[in-house]
Each structure stands twice: as C-alpha cells, then as structure tokens.
Amino acid sequence: MPGAIHAEGLVKTFGDVRALDGVDLDVPEGTVLGLLGPNGAGKTTTVRCLTTLLRPDSGRAVVAGVDVLKHPDTVRRSIGLSGQFAAVDEYLTGRENLQMVGRLYQMRGKAAKERAAELLEQFHLADAADRPAKTYSGGMRRRLDLAAALVVSPPVMFMDEPTTGLDPRNRQQLWEVIQQLVSGGTTLLLTTQYLEEADHLAHDIAVVDHGRVIAQGTSDQLKARTGGERVEVVVHERDRIASTAEVLRALGKGETTIDQHTRKLTVPVTGGAKLLAEVIRELDGRGIEIDDIALRRPTLDDVFLSLTGHTAEARPGTAEDTGNTTDTTDTTDTEGAVK
Ligand SMILES: Nc1ncnc2c1ncn2[C@@H]1O[C@H](COP(=O)(O)OP(=O)(O)OP(=O)(O)O)[C@@H](O)[C@H]1O
Ligand SMILES: [Mg+2]
C-alpha cells in the first residue's frame, strides 16, 4: 500500500537540464522523510512537483491518497508547504500574515485569530507580532513562514530547508515543533543541508543526486553501508600530511581522505582500539607530531561524501598528495552542507 507520499519515476527537464531523472519515493503515514543532496540535486524540484506547483514531464505521484496530476486542487487542500525562500507579505504584520492564511483556508475570524496568537507564541514572535514583517530579521521571517505553513495543521507537510538561516537555539526549537507535529500524526517530507538535522528528525533518509534517489534508508542503515569505524588524525605540521597518509594507507582498510585545510586525514579501519594504538606507535616512530587522533563511527557526512563523491561543491584535483587519496576540500565554505 502506498504511503502518505508516493512518487514513481518523476522526470522534469528545464531545457537541457534534467532536474529530475526518475525520482521514486515512498513516505509512510506519520513518518518523516529527510531529502538530502548537494546543491542542484533536484530537492526543490521534487518538492514543487509533489506540491502541485510544477507539472512533471512524466511519472506519477500520490499525496494523501490523491493523484497529484489528476486532482491538484484536492491535493492542495491536504498539504502544507514551507518553501526554500520565505513567502511572507512584507507590509502586513506577523499577526496579520497568519490570520490571512487562516482566512484563506476558510477559518472563522475568531478561530484564525486564536490560531495566529498560538503560533506567534510558539515561534517566539509574540513581541514582534504587531510590526510589519519587513522589519523582521531573516530568522524571524523564516519562523513566520513556518508558522504560516502550520496554521491549519494539514495531514501532509513539505518543508524545503526549514532551518536554513536559523541560529542554533531557534533550530532546536523548530525541531521540537516538528517532533510535536509528527507525534500528532503528520507526515513530513523535509529537505535539508544539515545532516545533523536529518539524523535527528527523519525516520528515513533519501539521498538525491543528479535528479535520482541514489540511496534510501534509516540513518543507521546508510551509515552501515559506508562501512565500520574510521581513524581520524589531525597532524600538527602540514608538510607531514603525506607521510601520515602513507602510514594510514598501510594500516587502514580503504581510501584515505585528506583535508589539507584542517590537516585532517581519515581512513576506514578494522581492529578498533588495537589498530588505533598501532597507528599512534607508527606515527610516533616516524616523529610525526599530531594535534588529535580519534576512532569514530561513520557519520552522515561520511555517507554523503561516499555516495555523492563530494560535500556540496567538490573541487577535486587540489590534493598535494597524488596517491589514492582524495582531497575533500575545505568543508567550512560549503554552505553548511557538512557540519
Ligand atoms: N525553473 C527552472 N528553470 C531552469 N532550471 C531550473 C529551474 N528550477 C530548477 N532548475 C535546475 O534544476 C536543477 C535542480 O534544481 P533544484 O532547485 O531542484 O535543486 P536543489 O536540490 O533544491 O538545490 P539547492 O540545494 O541549491 O536548493 C538545477 O540544475 C537547477 O538549476
Ligand atoms: Mg532547493
């Protein structure tokens, strides 16, 4: 039986760009699917097709039991959407924005007012409720937009990068709101650049690249696919990176990843703590000074990197070392794709 959101072979082209190249998705009722992927992977296009804003060239989608292509109006009544870019009316106050949404959904005046007040409180906007939205900060706008998507608590919600631009405290609060929503039975498809967010909120994660779902599973299942533990070393001096890579290549069980910028090398290993001790002995024997060394389980970052071959925008070929190592590029300038 198809879930609350079901897509089969969605294709969408824009001129020469094949934005969606056969997207298949299934989101069981009452669960959260996290859609992950690098910039331009097709996340927003998927959301727009599923929310009737865009007509796919081919494929099929069913949302809340209704065929999206055949009955878009009916689908619209069962869904809520918070887009990648906040859509609020600048000249209305926060309160007026929310009340207007309520009225659009045929709520009575009193009910719309009460719901608006409740959401303003929940999203910490009560103090600014009666100021025009154009005076709001980026994070406040984002919160207002999300509140607007929740006015009528629809059974199926779509959120495209809901927490981009929010500070850590507001992100945390939004996570709580989302968890409450889902515990109340809402089905949610959310896209995010924050792997930690998908890890925290999503029951299932679908990794999208070049318009296709290239992997789907729980966070643990995806991590298991990427292999077991890895050793991570931060060397003190940049010119010892190559000799450290040699050591890791000899003792590790796969490709060594080098981040020149942070002087961090990572290699998959088997053998746990014993192997870690061996690495330390070997580095010490060669007089290589290290700032940090750790044994850790794969993170979603590793999954993402190994599946898509890059963080958000890979710049291959810049590694000084030319063995079988890969330069993962500086992860701090990739629009927060890897945290
Ligand atoms: N209206 C459009 N006209 C032309 N090309 C488009 C249009 N919308 C999307 N594209 C292209 O389709 C591809 C997928 O875009 P999409 O917005 O779905 O990516 P995304 O995964 O949401 O990326 P991001 O993480 O940057 O938000 C990109 O190559 C984009 O340039
Ligand atoms: Mg997008």
TrEMBL record:
SMART domains from the UniProt entry: AAA
Chain residue ranges for the region called Disordered: 311-339
One Pfam family here: DrrA1-3_C
Compartment list: Cell membrane
Membrane topology type: Peripheral membrane protein
GO BP annotations listed: daunorubicin transport; doxorubicin transport; response to antibiotic
CC per GO annotation: plasma membrane
Record-listed E.C. numbers: 7.6.2.2
Signal peptide feature range: none
Enzyme category, top tier: translocase
Biased composition (Low complexity): 319-339
GO molecular function: ABC-type xenobiotic transporter activity; ATP binding; ATP hydrolysis activity
Family annotation (InterPro entries): AAA+_ATPase (IPR003593), ABC_transporter-like_ATP-bd (IPR003439), ABC_transporter-like_CS (IPR017871), ABC_transporter_ATP-binding (IPR050763), DrrA (IPR005894), DrrA1/2-like_C (IPR025302), P-loop_NTPase (IPR027417)
Record's keyword terms, sorted: Antibiotic resistance, ATP-binding, Cell membrane, Membrane, Nucleotide-binding, Translocase, Transport
SUPFAM superfamilies, sorted: P-loop containing nucleoside triphosphate hydrolases
Keyword Ligase in annotation: no
ABC transporter domain: residues covered: 5-235
Family of this protein: Belongs to the ABC transporter superfamily. Drug exporter-1 (DrugE1) (TC 3.A.1.105) family.
Protein name: ABC-type xenobiotic transporter
